[in-house]
Amino acid sequence: MAKNVRTKPGYRCAECGNESAKWYGRCPECQAWGTVEEVGVPKAALAKIVAGAPSSPARPIGEVDVEAARARRTGVSELDRVLGGGLVPGAVVLLAGEPGVGKSTLLLEVAFRWAARDGASSPALYVTGEESAGQVRLRAERTGNVHEAMFLAAESDLSAILGHIDAVDPGLLVVDSVQTLSTTVVEGTAGGVTQVRAVTAALVAVAKERGLPVVLVGHVTKDGGIAGPRVLEHLVDVVLHFEGDRHSTLRMVRGVKNRFGPADEVGCFELVDDGIRGVADPSGLFLNRREQGVPGTAVTVMVEGKRPLVGEVQALVSRSALATPRRAVSGLDSARVAMALAVLERRGGIRLSDQDVFAATVGGMRIHEPAADLALIFAVASAARGQALPADIVVLGEVGLAGEVRRVHGVKNRLAEAARLGFTRALIPPDCEIPEGVRARICPDLGTALDVLAAVAS
Description:
- The protein is of the alpha/beta class and 458 residues long.
- The protein contains ten helices and 21 strands.
- The longest helix is centred in the middle third of the chain and has 18 residues, at 193-210.
């Protein structure tokens, strides 16, 4: 006699999709609080799994044809850089960003470039669930992205979208956005955990079956994370974050996950009146070149992915009228700024406990890597002493709590980028490779660095 199967309810985390037999206040997998929900009675375990016929025989890996899986360029070079060369057939890309950052504008450009290159043989299908077809057409006319091989559909039902795919047979599918789609197969409202998971899984299946590259637009939460269940990021092949400051025209696409290329690349774009365009040399956006140095400024070189970017760190120091002096930070990591100020006061002997300190970057750049520590300290010390660094000097190095200046990765490439832009001198940590054309001063510790500041200050 077969044993009775226990029919206890099951529980699933809405963030990561982890399933468990009992309820937890905190998910044991992703550590999120209050996300475990009851999902009903789990299915009975199968007593035996019968082997089935494989869809295709297994072959030696050297005999697998890779030509059909080669990436195809989108025509937008900065996006291709982040994707690792272009869109792979059957790949599903999730592009997330804040409202108004330019996601729809960028993907409209991608669809236009795809249609203009491949024509009727491989059209692009743009599906919008947030706007009407007329609204998208107006934006396409404004940005000059209208082509006869671009097809547009305003749909929010998954079945209707699958019908459009059958009718158009596109070479590229853009869905804006995945949170607006729904299906009658599962319960829930559009944008809910169940609906987003079901819709994404269906689109992934279509992409793999047809070899169709699919780009999904995703919303973000107030904390900057991708809205919806965490399993959404696991289902897709590539996850990109589109970010930018509302007060700046600069936009950056960062790779978060990429099964077909590097996951740490970054693409730079500029939002203009007639659309969006890639910026192949963005260092000029982050730099304010002067003939003479100004107290409180220091130039450094950060690395985004494999791309070195020259940027400027500024600081202002003034006597405080408050019992607790102000510390204001923009574009920098506030924790690292606080640590750098403490090291500068303790190890460098510069009194800041009764001074207001303001630190910022230029041009909307965000610097969070330790390589900018020395540049920040030089900017603050320069502002406090009223001594300006010469305009042809760049500063690199991580500063420890003991006041030592540590080596950072990629110094040679960073200095080569600085030399390309006309910088001839550098203040760097010990044991670094120096390219030709750059005169370097070694700063092993904070005391030596401040002595160098006094020596080279104009």
